Please model this.
Amino acid sequence: MASDTHNEIWSRLNDLPQPTLAQLFDADADRVAKLSQRFEFEIPGHGTNGMLLDWSKTHLDDDVLSAFEELVEASGFGAARDAMFDGGIVNPTEGRPATHGAMRGSGTETQVEEAEALLARMGMLVEAIHQGALGEVKHLIHIGIGGSALGPDLAVDALTRDLALVDVHVVSNIDGLALEQAFAGCDPHATLIAVASKTFTTTETMTNAASALKWLADEGVTDPTGRVIALTANPERAVEWGVDETRILPFPESVGGRYSLWSSIGFPVAMAVGMDDFRAFLAGAHAIDTHFRDTEGRANAPLLAAFADQYYTRVRGCQTRAVFAYDERLALFPDYLQQLEMESNGKSVTADGNPVSGPTAPVTWGGVGTDAQHAVFQLLHQGTHLIPVDFIASIAPGDELDPAHHKALLMNCLAQGAALMAGQHSDDPARSYEGDRPSAIFLVDDLDPAMLGALIAFHEHRTFANAVLMGINPFDQFGVELGKSIAKQLDSGEGQFDPSTTALMEAAGLL
Ligand code: F6P
Model:
């Protein structure tokens, strides 16, 4: 991957002058127009929605962008993107395609047909349950972890602030407190259990699922396994575990865990919002797929975002990037992005196994505005780390209170971006803000299901674009295996451990 062309482009990028944001704005009266973009998409039955993206408060300029466009060519970005949408092997270490796009209509004809059939099957089950086929269902405990939980948790939380057709509790942690808390909020005789696991082998999920069945049995539910819906790419394993085939919603092996919200892993979302809104969620993602697939260079918005990511990580040495949603409904978005970005691109070798030529994924972190302003923004404004920030806000409010609430929310969001950039001089160093700190914004018209789908798909493609520019495989995650295997060894009492771990095992009463 690190060819002479790449090295030449990176050294050029590193040697380019680094004007301040103020200088960049002074030098180009069209800067806002050049680095902003408005998308609009229409979802039949759901109207038109749109988002304004503004990357003008980042240090991207023509020279930087041109160099990145050369890097796009040198990295074979177009071919990699085609391969992803065409079902090529884009996950070489596991010999798999990555067909999450097909789940929302962006893939080969065969994959899309297969996905539609799986979606239709899920839709029939969701609608049958809503109509009472499994008796009274007021609650759904969704058990999964990582990609089998973070997406459902985000989407249910974001889309059901006003109304949920079914009360969904997402449980991931093996800490029994998490499951107990869900039990406390559910009537066992009106509860379904969704067991969500691509592999159907993950320790946390299978332990929690077994405990949920025991809870149902202890509470006098006659056929606990009859209350389970399995969401998995390993249906055979779910059958072995005792789930009836009619209640297994499969998805293809080629859909990665952290990209699986669009598949049957989205079942709790469909249960909570209904199939019509779930389809709108998929359609919003599809609109971004189309843009990402058909647009070249800096006009491709997820690719442009990846240029900024690469620039800050590799040229300016930023080790983290922060995301602040000025919207309570997106409180879980930073958690979701952490897995998407850090599990995908937190790598040290390229797709062909060679050491990477520079830093890979930064640490993704964030929170909700305005809360974060009163907690962590001090460091953003005056700390010694340069941290690129993304803001997300919705023009339409999520609440129905006095519009003063929403107005203040939006004003605060915009004020933070302005303050980070402008800074303020004071003769008192403690009161001085150096400014020139970058931010970008997603200003959406309305955070409806389609827009949520669009935002998530945008970040999937941004993550993929970053990976291609770095030459790494974003679709494997071998780094998570070692800890799992050591936990198993500790559990079985086999193996030799370091003195610290052995002493801690003794102290915890585990030996
Ligand atoms: O351990 C990491 C991981 O494999 C994630 O990639 C995945 O999303 C999660 O565990 C859960 O896996 P599964 O869906 O197979 O239970």
